Structure formats: C-alpha cells, structure tokens
Amino acid sequence: MTTRLPRLAAGRHVTPAHGCCLLELVSLLADEEWTDRPAAVHPVLAAVARCVNDLSTPTGRRALPALAVPLIGTARARRTHALVEHCLRAAGLPRARWMTWWPALAAHRATRAVAVAAGGRRDEALRRLLAECTALCRAEECPHGTSDEQATRGAGGGRGARRPRRHPHRGGAAGDQGRGPLPVRDHAHAG
C-alpha cells in the first residue's frame, strides 16, 4: 500500500485535499492539528519555511518535502538571534533595531531578499537557506556531535560527566568560600 503526500502549494490550505504548504505537511508528520504554524517548529525557522514554500516555483516546491522532517523538534532551540543574523547575512541586508522586536518578520524579509537576489536560481538558494537555518537549530540539540561521536571521544553526559558550575544567585559561584558546598543529588534516583 502506498501513501500519497499532499501536493505542496503556496499559501495556507483548509485540508490536505486542497494541497498543503511545507509547514502544514510538518504538522501532519508531527501528528499535530492541521496548521501552517506547527508547535514543533521554531517560530523564526517557521517564518523562513513559509516564505521558502511560497516563493519557490512549482518545480522547486517538489524538492521541499525532504526538508520537512528535520524541521520537527526545533521549537525549543534558543537560536532566534542566530537565525535572524544568518538570514540577514545571506540576503546581504543590514541589521535594524526593529528586528529585535519582530525577528520572524526580519527573517521573512531577508528570505524574500535572498529569492530576489538569486533570480533564476531562487529554488536552490531558498532550499539552501532553509537547510542552513534548520542546521542552526539542530546544532543546539547536540553541540558536541552525535552520541556515537561523544562516546568515541569520551565527551558527553552520564554519571562521569563534568558537574555544572553553581549559579551565583543560588548558593554562590564555584569556589566561593563564603558558602558551603551544595549537596549533589542524582535526580533520577532521588526519593
């Protein structure tokens, strides 16, 4: 039995039978309610993805479903500033003060500028920008490589990992002689 994906098209759609945009496809894949604003995707990355979907040619849009799955799970990435800066660099645009207040709009405008500057090669430029922005969000998930790479070089978490420094407002900084040491608890086994 084969499953047919909805046809990607510009804009929002009422149901998959009417087509879908890239983010509506993501909402299906993430098992969310049908929307072009899935909770599983970082809001600034979603703005880039919506713009990429809408500005791609019908031929270019056929390659976008491959970029859907990596978008899932990026919502918690703390990369808003990095995403905006990356989009601005790609578009060759200067940073403006308002961009701090409306980062999704800034990323959207920068994505439009990338499409205009790329001309006839806009599909490739837009896919590359979306892939790079997705990679920025994904890099935060595993900043030291995959778990296999961490095991190989001995880095990473687990019981043998380096303990985090104490927060200065919660009992003093590491090495602070004015306070006693904080108790170390293994929260997984705390009773």
Write the layout of secondary structure elements.
Elements: H1 22-29, H2 43-55, H3 58-61, H4 68-71, H5 80-91, H6 103-118, H7 122-141, H8 147-153
Helix pairs in contact: 2-6, 2-7, 5-6, 5-7, 6-7
Which key terms come to mind for this protein?
191 residues; mainly alpha; 8 helices; 0% strand
Description of the molecule:
Helix content is 44%, strand content 0%. The C terminus is likely disordered. The protein has 191 residues and is mostly helical. It has 8 helices and no strands.
Strand content: under 5%
Q: What is the distance, rounded to the nearest whole angstrom, between the alpha carbons of the first and last residues?
A: 49 Å
Number of helices: 8
Radius of gyration in whole Å, from Cα? 21 Å
Mean pLDDT: 75
Secondary-structure element string: HHHHHHHH
Low-confidence regions: 143-191
Q: Give the structural class.
A: mainly alpha
In which range does the helix fraction lie? 40-55%
The major beta sheet can be summarized as: none
Which geometry do the CA atoms define?
globular
Number of strands: 0
Concise synopsis of the structure shown:
By secondary structure, the protein is an all-alpha fold. The protein has helices at residues 22-29, 43-55, 58-61, 68-71, 80-91, 103-118, 122-141, 147-153.
